[in-house]
């Protein structure tokens, strides 16, 4: 191939690469704009009309399925991840009465892809953190009538309560009638039913208590790792970053 044709081909390749990079930057910038514009807050609720949406609460875009929002009350400074379902009632348009059905306390975090489905009251306390793909429901299928498909039988419902300060691990399921105490840890993939006491760790399907804090003996069985050093009161994020830099040794030995 003549030399000038090599130069021409190289210029075409560079042009094509530049166009791909430019298109990629445009797509990512547009998506970030959509995420900001599509997020739901108290100031920008869009078409949703929640019974309450607190100050600082944000539902990330893209939204999941949301209906029955007049019976959904969201506390202050909640973080609702992408594709999270919040449903009050069995279907859109149902009249669920004068009281809220699904209530999130202040500072609740629902991870990406989580589902909260409430026909009977479902209540999250304050500062409940959920990993991705958590499923919390007050409804369960019935299978009593062997002559009808299970999906066409009216479900059983029971209230659910999740105590303040709890952590729900990724992919866990909280079944109707569950009552979790304060600061409960639910291991990833667990299926929880019934009552769980305060300051307990549960794991398994069905979940059982595998560790619990007792006032006279501490954690039983004992924790396998030492407790982290608590963050001093009043310390700022900037001070924490500076402290981390001081504690991180220079790999170059400077």
UniProtKB/TrEMBL annotation:
<keyword id="KW-0808">Transferase</keyword>
<dbReference type="Pfam" id="PF00132">
    <property type="entry name" value="Hexapep"/>
</dbReference>
<comment type="similarity">
    <text>Belongs to the transferase hexapeptide repeat family.</text>
</comment>
<dbReference type="InterPro" id="IPR001451">
    <property type="entry name" value="Hexapep"/>
</dbReference>
<protein>
    <submittedName>
        <fullName>Acyltransferase</fullName>
    </submittedName>
</protein>
<dbReference type="InterPro" id="IPR051159">
    <property type="entry name" value="Hexapeptide_acetyltransf"/>
</dbReference>
<dbReference type="InterPro" id="IPR011004">
    <property type="entry name" value="Trimer_LpxA-like_sf"/>
</dbReference>
<keyword id="KW-0012">Acyltransferase</keyword>
<dbReference type="GO" id="GO:0016746">
    <property type="term" value="F:acyltransferase activity"/>
</dbReference>
